[in-house]
Amino acid sequence: MRTGAIAVCIAMLVVAGLAGTARADWDPTTLPKPKWVQMPDLQFGMDINATWKQGPTGGPQWPFVKTVADDFLCVQTEPITDVHIWGSWLDDKINLNAVFKLSIHDDIPAGPGGVNYSQPGQQLWQHLFKPTEYRVRPWATANEDFYDPNTGQMLGRDMTVWQYNFFIPEAEAFMQKGTEKEPKVYWLDVMAILPPPADGSIDPTVFGWKTSREHWNDDAVFGDTPDPAIPPTIWSELRDPRVADHPSLDMAFVITPEPATLCLLGAGVVGLLARRRRK
Description:
Strand content: 35-45%
Helix content: 10-25%
Radius of gyration: 21 Å
Shape: globular
Structural class: mainly beta
Number of domains: 2
Mean pLDDT: 84
Order of helices and strands: HEEEEEEEEEEEEEEEEH
């Protein structure tokens, strides 16, 4: 009896620890294994302008009208409740009031009748994260370029890589519908919405989503919109302007298991300990 109680307590601690991991900064050295991960490229990577901000006259401030998106593969039908991305701020000038819009889109594959690269289709889900609704921490240092694909110019550089951690209540989460037999492609879109300064000045801060060292499927893409509530209708693929053959660019992000998956893992621990006790 005492052994059984100890086993249950240990299992509860395991579940609690895993649940804590699911709601904390993502660490690649700890469990659980992510559903999808593309690590940041700290050697040859750069940051892509993913900022939307209002100009001093009230309209959008071009070229800061951006959404950046990258595709990922779903092989399990379950909610997406944790998303983690890496990014930097131009010249390391951080805006603590940034509101992040994350959205998930269906996939328009490349092929007849379309363009020669895949891109986001219909918006299936979106969520706005206020500054109090996400976690951020410094991840690494890397002297990297900061690129705007509209102008084709390097806006400057940055030194600090930040990890942004977004947690979505399960009741508000997007339910992905892929399976092992019928995998499904989705797109994750990221936009940092910067409120105008109260004094009417021009805000110098710009957020960039960091590129990844991993590449999957087609290139990441960017799109412009006059209103952050309206998804772009035209998408352009992202390629590295620094290299002669302009290789593909993909973005750095992680999608991790939701609490329900962790509870199933914890239940497995309980069962294992119970079987050991019967032996």
